[in-house]
Amino acid sequence: MTKPKYYVTTPIYYVNDVPHIGHAYTTLACDVLARFKRLDGYDVTFLTGTDEHGQKVAKSARAAGVDAQAFTDQVSQNFRDLAAFMNYSNDDFIRTTEARHKTSVQALWRRLIDAGEIYLGSYAGWYATRDEAFYTDSELEKRPDGSLVAKASGAEVEWVEEPSYFFRLSAWQDRLLALYEANPDFILPKTRRNEVVSFVKSGLQDLSVSRTTFDWGVDVPGDDAHVVYVWLDALTNYITAVGFPDTEGDYARYWPADVHMVGKDILRFHAVYWPAFLMAAGLQPPRRVFAHGWWTNEGQKISKSLGNVIDPIKLVETYGLDQVRYFLLREVPFGNDGDFSHAAMVHRMNGDLANDFGNLAQRVLSMIHRNCDKAVPAPGGFSDGDRALLKAAAAIKDNMAAAIDVQAFHEALEHLWTVVRAANAYVDRQAPWALRKTDPDRMRTVLYVLAETLRHLAILAQPVMPDSAGRMLDLLAVPAEARDFAALTPAHAVQPGTSLPKPEGVFPRHVEPDADGA
Ligand code: MSP
Description:
Low-confidence stretches: none
Bound molecules: 5'-O-[(L-methionyl)-sulphamoyl]adenosine
CATH class of the domain at 342-492: Mainly Alpha
Number of helices: 18
Largest sheet: 7 strands, parallel
Distance between the termini: 59 Å
Radius of gyration: 26 Å
Mean pLDDT: 96
């Protein structure tokens, strides 16, 4: 039987910047989707990469005093390193300066030309290099210092006049609205969908899709005075990576993408321009664009000028990798904005992880170690309470899967924690430490039920916390080949008599350096 496919993408990141929490967050969400789907039996392609052309990158390279290619080689590597550091499981890493991508962009361009969707004209209007975006007068506002900025992003604009190719976006209004109508989950969350629908309803203008005033980009086929507009170039990465312009092979298998994950600031490019380009070229639009929210730092907007940019590497060094991965997806309903604070981070780390999940594992495994010959105990008959806990554990997967399918990570984790809490309550109620003397058979049954519940919890925690969940599965002696979701059946239950390694804590507590006594 062939596996169902799943194709998930991150935005490709501008290489003018060092990686920060925003980049780490978008990719983390995709990593969890990819890991979840792989464990659930899907054939997954998870793509990330870097967006290396355009005026903004060219400017940063100039400022750094290096040529653009050398600059992008260097900065792109930071994003690759971050992916490894954060334990992201991306299957590919694309750079828009690669030959495969240039071929793909030019092929898409030719399709658009052949379809009569692009024409030559001239652009006179506002451009914000920071956003790499064109703005109309009504989208701008004046700052007290007299500068003109885009209302949506605060990016400064400059007046641009140059010959330009245009994409007939204005002709796509009805077909875009029909796409949103026919696919109610094409844009999530719903509130973002409504914003896009009203933007498109308000009317679309043709879009400038080439530039002539700099040359750091893909040449327009047949007219190398122009380079392709960086957003048309960048968006094309999603089909380049699956082999476009070859539309057989990987493209036929993986396209359309199941989810393009993006931040709310770049939704319009993905939910309006991109499906219009694709449909105009006779290609299928993606299945979904999910726009997540933005993080603030201790209540403040994150910005370089405020000097409060959050470095994901420092976070991980302070709190631990899986702790950070857990926090980012648990703290905020995915799609909403969220605030990073030390207090909130420590609260999750010590509360949810160390006290709830970690302590459950530690209590159960050390009781088994001390009282059951360091091996999975053999259960006797199950009580209703035992069956209820096992049933709750067996139900987590479907509940989590439903949440994951709409990118509700916080809910998926809540399903897991409902059972973590139920298991802790069960331990307290059954008091296996007291049964040791009064009813050792019953103690073994209780510890068996808990070990089997832990097996479910650890298998299902893997997408979010791969290392910690893996360690927990090691402590339960679950073989490597029995860690996917197909193993969440009674047939793969923990086996009485299996010897277990010496238990050790999986989720350390955060101790304030000055409270340490050190
Ligand atoms: N190059 C474009 C994307 C092209 S995709 C075809 C781009 N690059 S970016 O480097 O600016 O991307 C940043 C990503 O990080 C976006 O998804 C953005 O929403 C996200 N974030 C940037 N700052 C953020 C926060 N403070 N919080 C959460 N995410 C934020 O845009």
